[in-house]
Design brief:
Helix content is 43%, strand content 12%. By secondary structure, it is an alpha/beta fold.
Length: 471
C-alpha cells in the first residue's frame, strides 16, 4: 500500500467510524455469535499473496463486527466503564502513525516529558500529595504487581531480585471484595496464593480494620512476615470504600507497604465532593487509578503513583550497554519504572482528552453520570420487587429482583440469573453480575461517554418488562 492508497482508505475508515458512532445504538450491545463461529469463518492458512484492502475491510465488517460487544454503546451497562472519546481516538490515530518506542528519554523526549507533566496534572486533579510521582502503566493489574514487587524488594533490601527466594514467609492483606488481580499478583511475585490473606468486610463491603490487625498479629505469632496491604477505594463488585485512614495507621504501626487500588472509582476524585475518600492518603506508598475506565481515555492507560521513586526504580532498573545514554542521570527513563521495556506513547491521548474537555468539562461529565445513577435508583425504588444490595457511592447500582412471595435465597439467585440472561438476550442493553454475601446481584454501571437519560429510562423499562415475565 503506497501513501496515495493509504490516504484514500484512511478517509474511508474515518467515514466508517463516524457512521459507526451515528448508528452504534442499532447494534446488539452484546455480541450474539456462538463459540468458534468467528474462528470458523477465518481461513486456516494465511494468504500467500497480497489481498486488496477493499476485501480485508469488507471481511472486517462482515466477520469481525458481528463478534464485537459494543463497549462504547450508551446502552452498555456491564462490568465497568471502558470508555473512549473522539479526542482520544484522534490521539490514538497519531500515536499509531508515529509508532514511537518510548522506553527511554532519548528514544522520544517528547513522550517522556509529556508523560511526566500530564501525570503532574492528574496527581493534582485527584488530590494526591505533591511528593507522589507518576508513570503510566498499561493496567491496574500491572500497577498492583509493580507495587507488590517493590514492597518485596524494599523490605529485603533488593535481595530477592539478586538471589531469589530462600524461605518465603511473606503475607499480603486485602479484603474479600478486592479485585482478582491482587491474587494474580501474589502468584506472579512468588509470594504465593496461600499467603494472600483476605480480610472480612462489613455490611457496606468495606474491609474491617480490627480484623486486619488481628490477622497480622496472628501471622506474626506463627512466624509469618506481614509485607503489604492493598486497600481498595471503589471495589469492582460494588464500589465499596475501604477505611483508608484506619488501615493506614495499621500499615504504619507494622511498617508495611500500603498500596491503594482506586482503578474504578479514582476518576471521581477530580470532584471536590469525593475528596473525603482520600482521608489517610499520607500513609500510602503507592496509588493507582485508570483513566481508561471513567476518564474518556481509551484502553490502555493506568496512572500509577509512588511515594518513593527510588524503591520503584531499584526494583526494575536494568541498563545493558546498548541502552546506556548520556541523559540517563538527568532524565526519567520510564522503562525503569515498571515491567515493560517497550512502551507506547500513552500520554498523548490523555493530554488530548484533558485539554479537549478541560478539568471543568470532565467534572461535568462525571457529575452527569452520577445524576443518571440517582435517576435509576429513583426508578427502581418506585417499582415493587426490586432491592438495592449495596450503597450507591457513585455510578454503580447493585440490585436484584425480589418478588414479595419469595424469600428462599437459592430461588432468588436462580430468578436473578434468569433475569440477567433474559435482559442480555434482548440485545438492547447489557448488564453483568456479581455475588454479594452469596446473593446473585445485577450490576448497572453508568459511565459510557455518550450515555444519556433516555438510555437509563429504556434500560429500566427493559429490566421491568423482563422481570414481569418471570412471575
Amino acid at each position: 500500500m503506497d501513501i496515495n492508497k493509504f490516504e484514500k482508505f484512511a478517509k474511508e475508515l474515518i467515514d466508517w467510524i463516524v457512521e459507526y458512532y451515528n448508528n452504534i445504538e442499532n447494534f446488539p450491545v452484546k455480541s450474539k455469535v456462538k463459540p468458534r463461529e468467528i474462528f470458523n469463518k477465518i481461513p486456516d492458512t494465511p494468504p500467500q499473496n497480497s489481498e486488496p484492502f477493499e476485501k480485508i475491510f469488507s471481511d472486517f465488517q462482515q466477520i469481525i463486527i458481528p463478534g464485537i460487544t459494543h463497549w462504547q454503546s450508551p446502552k452498555f451497562f456491564a462490568y465497568f466503564p471502558a470508555n473512549t472519546s473522539f479526542p482520544s481516538i484522534l490521539a490514538e490515530l497519531l500515536t499509531s502513525a508515529i509508532a514511537a518506542q518510548c522506553m527511554k528519554w532519548e528514544t522520544s523526549p517528547a513522550a517522556t516529558e509529556l508523560e511526566e507533566k500530564v501525570l503532574y496534572w492528574l496527581r493534582d486533579m485527584i488530590g494526591l500529595p505533591d511528593y507522589f510521582l507518576g508513570v503510566i502503566q498499561d493496567t491496574a493489574s500491572t500497577s498492583t504487581l509493580v507495587s507488590i514487587l517493590s514492597a518485596r524488594e524494599s523490605f529485603t533490601n533488593y535481595r530477592i531480585n539478586e538471589s531469589g527466594f530462600e524461605n518465603n514467609k511473606f503475607r499480603v492483606y486485602c479484603s474479600t471484595e478486592t479485585h482478582s488481580s491482587i491474587e494474580k499478583a501474589v502468584k506472579i511475585s512468588g509470594i504465593g496464593k496461600s499467603n494472600l490473606v483476605k480480610i472480612p468486610v462489613d455490611d457496606k463491603y468495606s474491609m474491617i480494620p480490627t480484623l486486619l490487625k488481628e490477622s497480622m498479629e496472628e501471622d506474626l505469632a506463627k512466624g509469618y512476615i506481614p509485607l503489604c496491604i492493598i486497600a481498595t477505594l471503589g471495589t469492582t463488585g460494588s464500589t465499596a470504600i475501604d477505611p483508608l485512614e484506619e488501615i493506614g495507621k495499621i500499615a504504619k504501626e507494622f511498617n508495611l507497604w500500603l498500596h491503594i487500588d482506586a482503578a474504578f472509582l479514582g476518576s471521581a476524585l477530580i470532584l471536590p465532593e469525593y475528596k473525603w475518600i482520600l482521608k489517610g492518603i499520607e500513609y500510602a506508598d503507592s496509588f493507582v487509578f485508570n483513566p481508561h475506565k471513567w476518564l474518556f481515555t481509551n484502553f490502555d492507560c493506568s496512572a500509577y503513583f509512588v511515594k518513593d521513586v527510588s524503591a520503584l526504580v531499584r526494583t526494575f532498573e536494568i541498563i545493558p550497554e546498548y541502552l546506556k545514554t548520556k541523559s540517563d542521570k538527568i532524565t526519567n527513563n520510564y522503562c525503569d519504572w515498571g515491567i515493560q521495556l517497550g512502551r507506547r506513547f500513552r500520554a498523548l491521548k490523555l493530554w488530548f482528552v484533558i485539554r479537549s474537555y478541560g478539568v471543568n468539562g470532565l467534572k461535568e461529565k462525571l457529575r452527569y453520570h452520577i445524576s443518571l445513577a440517582k435517576k435509576f435508583v429513583s426508578l427502581l425504588s418506585q417499582s415493587e420487587g426490586f432491592e438495592i444490595l449495596a450503597p450507591v457511592i457513585a455510578n454503580l447500582i447493585c440490585f436484584r429482583y425480589k418478588p414479595k412471595n419469595i424469600s428462599d435465597e437459592e430461588k432468588l439467585n436462580s430468578i436473578n440469573e434468569l433475569l440477567l440472561h433474559k435482559i442480555n438476550n434482548t440485545g438492547k442493553i447489557y448488564l453483568s453480575h456479581t455475588k454479594l454475601k452469596g446473593k446473585f446481584t445485577l450490576r448497572m454501571v453508568i459511565g459510557q461517554t455518550y450515555v444519556s437519560e433516555k438510555h437509563i429510562e429504556e434500560a429500566y423499562n427493559i429490566i421491568l418488562e423482563n422481570s414481569k415475565q418471570i412471575n
